[in-house]
Amino acid sequence: MIPYGRQSINASDLKAVADVLQSDWLTTGPAVIQFEEAIAEYVGARASIAVNSGTSALHVAYAAAGIRGGDEVITTPLTFVATAATAALQGARIVFADIDESTGNLSLEAARDAVTPRTRAITAVDYAGVPVDGRAFSDLAHESNALFIEDAAHAIGSTRAGRRVGEQADITTFSFFPTKNMTTAEGGAVVALDSEVELAGRRFRNHGLVRESDLLRWPNEGAWHQEVHSFGLNYRLPDVLAALGLSQLKRLETFKQRRAEVHRQYNEAFATVDGLRIPGCPTDASPTWHLYPLRVPADRRREIFDRLRAAGVGVQVNYIPVYWHPVFADLGYRRGLCPVAEEYYRQEISLPMYAGLANDQVERVIETVLQIVEG
């Protein structure tokens, strides 16, 4: 079976992890600090916060943004449930806006139409690795007295109009799950433009602990003393995984180039085939392709999906519209809310896409798809 996504691990990665395993630190320590500095430098940010998953990164982002009960968060339904769930856990009402039918990204116009006086954040997802228009979404959010949060779980290394993902949003979140563009096994990161938001995020990641003597309410208790002034959680990334991330980050540009080559081969094979639609991409974008979302006839999607898997091609579907999940249906959300996203979902199949995908495997995927679709 050719998997639809897979990590790319080499000897340098193994050595980096082994070195930490033989050091004095396994949990959060010097490797985490180095990893945070490296991520910040790579994306062109002032600082980054390493966390233990992309979901944790989103939760940290919403908590640091001060999202609470009564607030509204506008986001896309074409994403993994965590994009919305972590805001809902903060008490927010999720407002789903429809997508751009070419890229699968949140539609700027639909987001604009969804703004109300209660809007506190607009969260756009860089679907498949294609960056949203960061300047336009940032302008919209700020005009609405809200923050622009960019869920870049798919998009570390991507650029739009010459700017890296992570430079423009008020808060950007990354995921380093094994199928993503680089991995720490499990892990993620948060980048915030505002230093106060960053500090709030760092505290939330570590139980809300305060150790600065000038902020303590009881500063003379002793060297051991620490206080919790607001609730947080343990979302820390261990050193052993940060070491893997540091090693992977050095190869991210190579990963990006290979993913682009696979994407090009797929496009050339499928662009002129009746019934198939290749992924759209703005001309000023340079994605690190996390997914290859091929669209097929909706009435054949299940058949094509099942036959591809039976033939040893590990396809996936990304994603079930978030509000179709029972947890949101039970809150009153109904199907039909975002028709463009729902139609996109009915057509979408994610083909294998990862840096270690060999040319003969790409050719096998292409031949199998064409045989099933045209046969």
From TrEMBL:
Q: Which UniProt keywords apply?
A: Aminotransferase, Pyridoxal phosphate, Transferase
Residue ranges annotated as transmembrane are none
Cofactor dependency: pyridoxal 5'-phosphate
Among the GO molecular function terms of this UniProt record, one is: pyridoxal phosphate binding
Query: Highest taxon of the source?
Result: Bacteria
For the modification N6-(pyridoxal phosphate)lysine, the affected residues are: 180
Q: Which positions are catalytic residues?
A: 180 (proton acceptor)
Q: Which GO BP terms, alphabetically?
A: polysaccharide biosynthetic process
**Pfam families found in the cross-reference section:** DegT_DnrJ_EryC1
Return the similarity comment: Belongs to the DegT/DnrJ/EryC1 family.
The protein in question is named Aminotransferase class V-fold PLP-dependent enzyme
Q: Which organism is it from?
A: Cryobacterium flavum
Upper taxonomic lineage: Bacteria, Bacillati, Actinomycetota, Actinomycetes, Micrococcales
